[in-house]
Amino acid sequence: MKRTSVVAVMLLFLVGLAFAGPADKAPAGRVVSGKVLDQNDNALPSAIVYLTNTRTRAVKTYIVGQDGSYRFPALSPNIDYELYAQINGHKSDTKTVSQFDNREQVFINLKIDTK
User: Fold this and answer.
1) How far apart are CA 107 and CA 24, in angstroms?
2) Domains of the chain
């Protein structure tokens, strides 16, 4: 192999490393979390939160615990998501998490009028 070819290959390798960044820091994705509450801000245990990927229409669900908390980790920051909660036939408003919102952690409370 000629000397110029070896130098060119080494240079491309170094440029590739510079753009790749640190090997030990993989993107964790976005986290969407919050609480499901009634009109008096009381937790609604056993409510179900639905998270829809607007690109693929895939739906993830989460059954909230006693404190009303939900959490969806490792979501793509490049996709819009819609979420709402439901319990006993009552539903919250649908909220949107936009790909243009650059927060890594998004906190959204979902309120359900149970009366």
Assistant:
1) 27
2) 30-111 (2.60.40.1120)
Phi first, then psi, for residue 86 (nearest 5°) are: -145, 140
114 pLDDT band, cuts 50/70/90, is confident
44: its two tokens: 């609604």
Q: Centre a 10 Å sphere on the Cβ of residue 35 and count the other Cβ atoms it contains.
A: 20
Please write the tens of the pLDDT for every residue from 15-74.
Answer: 454 554 444 444 579 999 999 999 999 999 999 999 999 999 999 999 999 999 999 999
Q: What is the pTM of this model?
A: 0.75
Distance (Å, whole) CA 60 – CA 98: 17
Integer Cα distance of 113 and 8 in angstroms: 66
| Secondary structure in 3-state letters for 83-101 | EEEEECCEECCCEEECCCC
